[in-house]
Specification:
Helices cover about 40% and strands about 15% of the residues. By secondary structure, it is α/β, with parallel strands linked by helices. Strands 2, 3, 4, 5, 6, 7, 9, 10, 11, 14, 15 and 16 form a 12-stranded mixed sheet that branches.
């Protein structure tokens, strides 16, 4: 079973480069880390020689700082200019996104920041080069595509929850004792260790999507260590498991409405047509050009979600929906495969695996089947296309999970921290704008500084707004804090 919506910077993910650390050191500096050339992996070629990789050791269990350790993979490119400010640490979301893979492909978007900062990212614990978790094999993942994640019968319900429980068992088998030590709070403490070994007095940080929750958690735990911190595409820190699902149903429906208006359709009529299409696919999956594979309802919804992350992808959605209406599921399948990190050879990425072990350790709320069924009408009213999928997900995602969750909502209050720039996009589908408002408030008066962009897509910086980019650059490069409540249109 694949969660339909991830809090991740998918624009960066579309250009994944994978990197690890090769043998030998090209730069043993004051950090004490052995920086070397990054190497290619099975997922892609090595980045250029300007990128260096290293491994930092952190405690497996932060309550036992002198106990067993694990290694975290790091990547950096040094600042180009002479007036260096230090390191700028990036997290691209997920949870479960690989910073080691994404940083080189995202670097052109933040090239202005590299004049004064070393660009640095890492694979959080449980991800990629940092004890990455793989919960099932490729054949099992493909087989699970046939599981109906919006079950209509007792038999489908049984299969849905069995698949969820089996996935958790696979994660536990692979991760072992790491399973209980991959929380957002664990990663926030890892961030402070990274800050120390990089030689920075303060944490300069750019968090995207889930990376905003991680940044807020860091600010709460280490308020005096916050330097210049920007949070873009902000996760609502006041929402629990059900609240996040409701937020995303609302956000993706808003994005779908915007897409439908752009094509000259009435949003209500267009939504009804897509919902009817999905019902027909549920009853009879569509043929595709891929041997042995059909477009199921779940894959169809996944294929619709992907292009809503960016307005530039809306024409792709038009073509895919038209083909599906004509009985061909090939185009929506291609989009779903891209979202699910499936390559043409049938190999799947593991972002969703890492995401699940992290989010299910974080989230204590476990809605029962009965509770979820009571919520479904509300979800469907919010979004006839996405509501039912996100509603069922609240019960299935962490069903029968091997370890208990830690909290209902994360603590992000940081009254003693330096100003934190919180950037919200009114058209963001995955992390709706309300999350930015609430994050700014929860950080505390004088700490959370809200910058609003009236735009479309997931995230604001680097999305075409000179106003947003200039404000963020001025803050990170010069320390110029914009007026709280500034709006870019």
């Amino acid at each position: 079973m694949t969660r339909l919506v991830r809090w991740t910077a998918l624009a960066a993910a579309s250009a994944l480069l994978a990197a690890g650390c090769s043998g030998g050191s090209s730069d043993d500096d004051k950090s004490g880390l052995s920086w070397g050339r990054c190497k290619a992996t099975a997922d892609g070629p090595a980045p250029s020689s300007e990128w260096q990789c290293a491994t930092v050791k952190v405690p497996l269990d932060w309550s036992k700082p002198d106990g067993e350790t694990i290694g975290l993979g790091l990547i950096r490119a040094k600042a180009r200019g002479d007036d260096r400010l230090g390191s700028l640490l990036f997290n691209f979301g997920g949870p479960g996104a690989s910073g080691v893979s994404m940083m080189p492909s995202y670097a052109p978007t933040v090239s202005s920041l590299r004049e004064r900062y070393d660009l640095v990212s890492w694979d959080p614990r449980g991800v990629g080069a940092s004890e990455g978790v793989r919960c099932r094999g490729d054949k099992e993942i493909q087989a699970a595509e046939s599981v109906d994640v919006t079950p209509d019968t007792p038999a489908e319900e049984k299969a849905y929850f069995k698949d969820a429980a089996d996935f958790g068992k696979g994660c536990q088998k692979d991760a072992g004792k790491l399973m209980a030590h991959v929380s957002t709070a664990d990663s926030a403490r890892d961030m402070d260790r990274i800050r120390e070994v990089l030689g920075d007095d303060r944490m300069n940080y750019f968090g995207i999507s889930y990376g905003t929750e991680l940044g807020g958690t860091y600010a709460h735990l280490f308020p005096k260590k916050v330097g210049r911190m920007t949070l873009d595409a902000v996760v609502d820190p006041t929402a629990d498991t059900v609240g996040h699902a409701q937020n995303q149903a609302r956000g993706f429906q808003r994005a779908l409405n915007g897409y439908l208006r752009s094509t000259g359709q009435d949003p209500e009529d267009g939504t009804r047509e897509i919902a009817d299409l999905l019902q027909r696919i549920d009853a009879r999956p569509l043929p595709t050009g891929a041997p042995g594979r059909e477009l199921t309802q779940t894959l169809a919804v996944t294929g619709i979600i992907l292009p809503l992350y960016s307005k530039d992808s809306w024409p792709t959605l038009t073509s895919a929906l038209k083909a599906a209406e004509e009985g061909d599921g090939s185009e929506l399948l291609v989009l779903a495969d891209r979202y699910n990190e499936r390559d043409p050879s049938g190999r799947y990425g593991t972002t969703t695996h890492s995401q699940r072990v992290i989010s299910c350790l974080d989230d204590r709320q476990r809605p029962t089947v009965a509770e979820t069924k009571k919520l479904l009408p509300r979800f469907e009213r919010t979004s006839p296309v996405f509501g039912r999928f996100l509603g069922w997900d609240t019960a299935g995602w962490c069903h029968d999970w091997p370890v208990p969750g830690q909290h209902d909502t994360p603590e992000v209050s940081a009254p003693d921290a330096a100003p934190v720039l919180v950037v919200g996009n009114t058209g963001d589908p995955a992390t709706p704008y309300e999350g930015a408002l609430r994050m700014a408030g929860e950080l505390g008066k004088g700490v959370g500084v809200l910058l609003t962009w009236r735009g479309e897509g997931h995230g604001a910086y680097g999305s075409g707004s000179t106003c947003v980019d200039s404000a963020v650059d001025a803050y990170l490069l010069d320390g110029s804090v914009p007026k709280d409540g500034k709006v870019c249109s």
